[in-house]
């Protein structure tokens, strides 16, 4: 029976812009370790972490949460990247590895703007056919759930979820922004989403060189304008082109993430086209 007294913000809703890919088998972790930028060997069963998949040139294809509900099982929760597309791309690299990669249609990714009951930090809560994780911060509690039970759609809650991601510096990459940016340009060190100490993976040499030689000159900036900003829109200081928007809210005014020089000028001089931009400090708390 539905509890009608429940706060609407606490109800689970379908994250319709998120997909799910599962990796199952004796070589699931070894396969992921060779493909993804974070250290999967250090991820214990029952925990999760952020990670990213890169091109050989070190450009970000996807940023996602990696869940390890069991020793031989991984789940990738993918914002914005179609799960079927990701699964098909990963399958090209399986070769003789004992791993089954699927985009299970029977499982749904859901969210709620409330703290989970048992999951905390990087610890998963696995029970009753569902998996919950704590994807919140001190600024906004949130839970993410993988479940075979369906949740209703909620357009307003989905938009708010995306805005929270952006304010915390989680880049939401549409197709036009994939394979364009290095992890450092997207400030993914804030999420602990890549490793410079593990073994080889696609793009590892470029990531390590940028890190150890101190060549990261650009990173994410949180901006806001009164008009709707779109991915790919330029960010300028007077007549000087500084960078571009990589992720934006679905409404205005709303937050947007742009890749800019780390020493970019004050926001009161920045604009995108005819839209003046305001600068905000990125929120912390999503790192795991």
From TrEMBL:
<protein>
    <submittedName>
        <fullName>Uncharacterized protein</fullName>
    </submittedName>
</protein>
<keyword id="KW-0809">Transit peptide</keyword>
<dbReference type="InterPro" id="IPR045179">
    <property type="entry name" value="YgfZ/GcvT"/>
</dbReference>
<dbReference type="GO" id="GO:0016226">
    <property type="term" value="P:iron-sulfur cluster assembly"/>
</dbReference>
<dbReference type="InterPro" id="IPR027266">
    <property type="entry name" value="TrmE/GcvT-like"/>
</dbReference>
<dbReference type="InterPro" id="IPR017703">
    <property type="entry name" value="YgfZ/GCV_T_CS"/>
</dbReference>
